[in-house]
Amino acid sequence: MILTGAGDKAFVAGADISELAKSTAIDAEKGSRFGQQVLDLIENLGKPVVGAINGFALGGGLETAMACTIRIAVDHAKFGQPEVKLGLLPGGGGTQRLPRLVGKGRALQLLLTGGMIGADEAYRIGLVNEVVPAADLIPRAEAILNEIAANGPIAVRLTLNATNQGMDTSQQEGLILEASYFGLLAGTEDKREGTSAFLEKRAPQFKGR
What is the pTM of this model? Predict the structure, then answer.
């Protein structure tokens, strides 16, 4: 899946500030939990989601981008979590995903200042995977997905699961999960096809079984 914004100005517009201004504490918490659940769904979809970031990704826009599997940005994209400037904090997972992606120190600088960074800096700190000219954004996203799609579909899904679930547990528990998935994949038709194709020096024909 490719997730991108309409036009060339913003990836995702983020929250409606006039609506936030009127929200009660209960409404705000409910809205936060709903947004978190939506982004959890994107992150754990079981298939790769490329965020094609075509402009501003601020607040909820950055949180949406961070839920994507891979992030490709145009060279004029801007990133930030400006919620503290409104007397708030990110409510869609920003305080949790950002430090996991760029490290605690860099994340806290962005979270506590509410500052904005450009695409090159986002690439430098590991927030985005690649920076490309605007004309290349969707073709590059499609090329990455085509490269992934050539691999065993069950292997792709379980690799995503192992990585996402492993990030939320200890390394030792993650290694146990990895070994379990490795064993499951070893019993699939796709594994037999993949290894046979390699030995026979031909392209594999995976069936997702």
Answer: 0.90
